[in-house]
Amino acid sequence: MPSTRFRPSKARPRAGLYQDITAKITHALESGRAPWAQPWASGMRRTPIGIPTNAATGRRYAGVNILLPWAAVVDAHFSRQAWLTFRQAQALGGTVRRGEHGTSIVFADRVTPQDQAAAAAGEAETRQDIYFLRRFTIFNLDQCEGLPA
């Protein structure tokens, strides 16, 4: 079984990512609602029940990326559970309205450096995977204009 370990990046630190997500969940809890428990039942009757999805790909969000859009739907009173990145909105011929603020979500994965992958393939060495976490900003379709129906 390959050995994996976390190696912090030498690039500028992303100290704010974990704190931002923790602060959003803590704020929701302090406001009297659990962000994972039926956000549509908190007075937001016009928002359809469902898992937030990417409007361009149709893919459902997972993990903490469900909680963060749900909290944004409740806070901003959005009427949909469909989201896009700024570039996806542009690619579909629309745009995000000026002054709109997006919702942060995260993407986590791991990569194996090419030199280690080649070395591990040729010998019985264990590869060293590098884990990473990346932040994306998404916008609800209610924040966009000029998109095709």
First and last CA, distance? 48 Å
Structural class: alpha+beta
| Helix proportion | 25-40%
| SSE sequence, one letter per element | HEHEHEEHEE
Largest sheet, spatial ordering of strands: 1-2-5-4
User: What value does the Rg take, in angstroms?
Assistant: 19 Å
Largest sheet: 4 strands, mixed
Total of helices: 4
> In percent, how much strand structure appears in the residues?
15-25%
Low-confidence stretches: 1-9
Mean pLDDT: 79
Morphology? globular
Beta strands, count: 6
How many domains?
1
What does this structure look like?
The chain is of the alpha+beta class and 149 residues long. It contains four helices and six strands; from the N terminus they run H-E-H-E-H-E-E-H-E-E. The longest helix is centred in the N-terminal third of the chain and has 16 residues, at 15-30. Helix 2 links the parallel strand 1 and strand 2 (82-85). The chain has one domain. The strands form two sheets. A four-stranded mixed β-sheet has the order 1-2-5-4. Strands 3-6 form a two-stranded antiparallel sheet.
